[in-house]
Design brief:
The complex is a heterotrimer of chains A (284), B (398) and C (153). With 284 residues, chain A is of the alpha/beta class. Chain A is globular and about 50 Å long. The N and C termini of chain A lie far apart (44 Å). Chain B folds into 2 domains: 230 residues, no CATH class; 125 residues, no CATH class. Chain C is globular. In chain C, the strands form 2 sheets. Chain C has a 4-stranded antiparallel beta sheet. A 4-stranded antiparallel beta sheet of chain C has the order 2-7-4-5, with no helix packed on it. Chain C has a single domain, classed as Jelly Rolls. In chain C, 35% of the residues lie in helices and 30% in strands. Chain C has 4 helices and 8 strands, in the order H-H-E-E-E-E-E-E-E-E-H-H. Classes of the chains: A alpha/beta (284), B alpha+beta (398), C alpha+beta (153). Chains in contact: A-B, A-C. At the A-B interface, strand 14 and helix 7 of A face strand 6, strand 7, strand 13, strand 14 and strand 15 of B.
């Protein structure tokens, strides 16, 4: 291929940058965290944004960025290997190459929280903790700008919990509480068994001074949203991150539409009062 | 040369025979000239080299689910409406290799885009509805912060020869959509075919400097008031002949407020989810991507192809489809066209060309579907839900 | 007894209960302590009590031959465990095991039944609270049933 064709890189939004895996962390039996070496050209991302990851010859998937936003040398993604592309990605190790386009999409509104030092309530389900991890990093890095941080995290079983080491570290910070719950367990687990809304019952929060961010399977987010509203939190203070089929990530392919929204560019993070009414309509 | 100097906004008259000159002048200027021509029993858009390739003396009879070519009594060149093709097949091409990648000897991967086509297009016979459709696709693909370079490269510098419709097809409803029949903007030259009592001429209006420059090279004479009058009458005749109409008043609110209307079930029982409507639609822009690879030789490529929201795979998510019923897929298509397009792009997504009606194998007619919903609304009057808009405009209960 | 009524008042399950009812209930109540891994009750045993958990966490479990132990849910500080004494045949359906040291009020089922039958005001007040617990538990169970974190391909 002639050299000059490469000049289109950067100009062509569909053309990935190819990055090497610096470190692969096997999180669970079906989930891996890949740290990509991006020391050359890392564009700044905001917590909640995603990249399109391309596995050579296999295809592309939209994956949220799960690393620290202030690390310009590394792009971190946590990937659950369940599909034709993510399945093989699970097998990647140090030195492997992934294509990356991005970052894309809307971000978690951290300024809404830091503005006035409000409390932040995170509700994560399953792999949904990954898109919230940059928020946690940011809040801990700029601890004084924020009020209390409550992390409620639900997973299928104890073995499915992500970032176990970090969960233990996070709860050591002052004003940070981390509560976990699993759907089912089989003996050795002495933590909570139940659902994410049970965890919400165990925490007190001030609806006037709290922002909630929810990320997880859509149905889990719906239940969490309803429970938050029942507890007095205004829908305008609740944010959730949506997922739909995506091919382009920039609003051209049409796949990710949810009524008026393109999840890729209007989302993935939405204020709940804007998106929630759409979720109750079947097959929208 | 031989012709009248023509300013922007000025008009001349050419003889029908001069169309051939026009095509040749455009070709000589380096344009790849595309125009209507007959192929496989339909009028399609293809590369043309001479006026004889145009569908002279043919018309099309169009009704819901039917399209038929028929000989005309006269030698009208543009005496038909629109066929199954639209100009999007040249600008937003059906199959496009986005890039190809090669694994290098050191294990790294290099990717490159194919060079964009060198020659510019000249489109001959673009109808007003189609100019609007092109403007709509411009908005989608190059109107935002992220611009599709492939579309941009093809779109850039297209020489647009519009044709003002002098009659309307059986499924046309551009008047309802405010997109025709007379071309108002977005062209270099606009032709109006004037055909009566042995005269066969074209009124040519120029809307650009290069349009004026091109027509100067074609034998022409100044337009007289009676030419302009005849052209206006022809446009008015077409406007009066619309085969369909669509009441667009509050149509966004109507559709979004009736997402659970029984009519969706009714239309779903007829709809085959074949996707024809999306393929023939000049504004439908959805695509998917295919990955091809030859891993033995370390080569991979991504190919973008037109896609349709009528397929199950379109909304595939975690092992299932978000829109698994045909009801939901028809609803997605129609509400997108007529309602949420406004939220997304500030316009309607429908230009009233009627292709989706004509080319539907079971003759589903969106104008009929909309009026069925309009004429039979549930009595309770409470909105099913309020639809927020991405830009925050038009927010509120519907 | 009076002392116990005062303590009962502070348990969320009985929050807002009238003093006279609390005193009645105190007559059915006893303090109970369980070490980690100790069973509060076992499947098939006669169900004769409700446990108002004061501190600690209890797991409801069932042993499935060939599959091992299945832990279904946990009940902890401030929650109530057990209402099988309300209806015949008054049997526990699952095992309840303390996951950590547990302190609870044990309300005697026979005593409660008798009092509820004679004092319908108390009975209504109590059953309403149990019904809410059942509602919460059912909601939880439904969401668990959805298995929302299951991997689909």
């Amino acid at each position: 291929m002639p050299e000059q064709e490469y000049n289109l890189q950067g100009a062509d939004p569909m053309l990935p940058r190819f990055l090497r895996v610096r470190r692969a962390v096997v999180e669970t039996h079906d989930t891996i965290t890949l740290e990509l070496d991006d020391s050359n050209a890392a564009p700044q991302f905001a917590p909640g944004q995603f990249n399109m990851l391309y596995l050579f010859g296999a295809g592309e998937v939209a994956i949220s960025i799960s690393g620290p936003p202030d690390d310009r040398q590394t792009l971190v993604h946590t990937i659950r290997g369940v599909g034709a592309v993510t399945g093989p990605i699970l097998q990647l190790r140090r030195g492997a190459i992934l294509g990356v386009r991005g970052p894309y999409g809307s971000a978690w509104p951290l300024h809404e929280v830091s503005n006035g030092g409000r409390d932040l309530l995170l509700m994560a389900g399953g792999i949904g903790l990954a898109p919230l991890r940059p928020v946690i990093y940011e809040v801990l890095r700029r601890r004084r700008e924020f009020g209390n941080l409550t992390i409620l995290y639900g997973a299928r079983t104890p073995a499915d919990l992500l970032y176990r080491g970090e969960l233990a570290q996070w709860r050591m910070f002052p004003g940070v509480s981390v509560k976990l719950i699993v759907d089912r367990a089989a003996g050795v687990w002495s933590g909570r068994i139940g659902v994410i809304t049970d965890l919400l019952r165990t925490v007190q929060f001030d609806p006037a001074e709290t922002i909630a961010m929810i990320c997880g399977p859509e149905v889990m987010m719906r239940f969490a949203y309803h429970e938050l509203v029942r507890r007095g939190l205004a829908a305008e203070r609740i944010y959730m991150s949506m997922e739909r089929n995506m091919k382009c990530a920039v609003g051209w392919c049409g796949h990710c539409q949810l009524s008026p929204f393109f999840i890729c560019k209007d989302g993935p993070v939405f204020r709940a009062d804007r998106i929630q009414p759409l979720l109750a309509t079947r097959e929208l | 040369m031989q012709g009248e100097r023509l300013g922007i906004g000025g008009a001349v008259v050419i003889q029908s025979g001069a169309l051939d000159e026009l095509i040749k002048v455009l070709a000589a200027e380096g344009y790849k000239v595309i125009g209507p021509t007959i192929s496989d029993g339909a009028i399609v858009y293809d590369e043309i080299r001479q006026a004889a390739q145009l569908p002279i003396g043919w018309t099309d009879l169009q009704q819901a689910g039917s399209y038929q070519l028929q000989r005309r009594q006269d030698a009208a060149v543009f005496g038909f409406a629109v066929g199954p093709h639209s100009w999007k097949k040249f600008l937003h091409v059906p199959v496009l290799r986005l890039w190809r990648a090669q694994r290098q000897s050191d294990g790294s991967i290099g990717a490159a885009t194919d060079p964009h086509p060198a020659s510019k297009f000249a489109f001959i016979g673009v109808r007003s509805c189609e100019l609007h459709a092109i403007a709509i696709q411009d908005q989608v693909l190059i109107g935002g912060t992220c611009k599709d370079p492939h579309y941009a490269a093809r779109r850039d510098g297209v020489f647009m020869v519009a044709v003002n419709c002098t009659s309307a097809g059986g499924t046309c409803f551009c008047v309802s959509m405010g997109t025709g029949p007379r071309a108002e903007a977005g062209f270099d030259l606009a032709l109006t075919e004037l055909l009566d009592d042995g005269h066969h001429e074209f009124l040519v209006e120029s809307a650009s400097a290069r349009g004026a420059e091109v027509i100067r090279q074609v034998a022409n004479r100044p337009a007289q008031p009676h030419h302009r009058q005849a052209a206006a009458q022809a446009s008015a005749r077409a406007a009066a002949q619309m085969g369909r109409q669509l009441d667009t008043a509050g149509v966004r609110e109507l559709l979004l407020g009736n997402l659970e209307h029984p009519r969706w079930d009714e239309v779903a029982a007829r709809c085959l989810a074949c996707g024809n409507c999306t393929m023939v639609c000049p504004t439908c822009f959805c695509t998917t991507v295919e990955d091809h690879s030859d891993l033995a030789n370390g080569v991979a490529e991504r190919v973008r192809t037109w896609d349709s929201c009528y397929t199950l795979e379109f909304s595939h998510l975690h092992g299932g489809s978000v829109r698994s019923s045909i009801r939901s897929r028809y609803r997605q298509w129609l509400t997108h066209k007529l309602a949420t397009w406004w939220d997304q792009f500030g316009t309607s997504g429908c230009v009233g060309c009627g292709r989706c009606i004509t080319w539907c194998p079971v003759g589903i007619d969106l104008t009929e579907e909309v009026s069925a919903i309009r004429n039979n609304q549930p009595r309770h009057g409470r909105p099913l839900f309020s639809v927020p808009s991405p830009q925050g405009k038009g927010e509120g209960e519907v | 007894m009076e002392n116990l009524a005062r303590l009962l008042k502070d348990h969320p399950f009985l929050a807002g209960m009238e003093q006279v009812h609390l005193e009645f209930l105190a007559g059915c109540a006893a303090n109970a302590r369980y070490a980690a891994d100790e069973f509060l009750f076992k499947e098939g045993q006669e169900s004769d009590a409700s446990y108002l958990i004061r501190t600690g966490r209890v797991a409801l479990e069932v042993s499935i031959p060939g599959r091992g132990l299945a832990q279904l849910q946990t009940v902890e500080t401030g929650e109530v465990l057990g209402w099988s004494w309300l209806y015949p045949p008054y049997r526990w359906q699952f095992d309840a095991r303390a996951l950590e040291p547990v302190r609870a009020f044990r309300l005697d089922g026979n005593c409660l039944r008798a009092k509820c039958e004679t004092d319908h005001d108390l009975g209504y007040e109590l059953v309403k609270r149990f019904l809410y617990q059942v509602h919460v538990r059912l909601e939880r169970t439904r969401i668990q049933l959805l298995d929302v974190y299951r991997a689909d391909t």
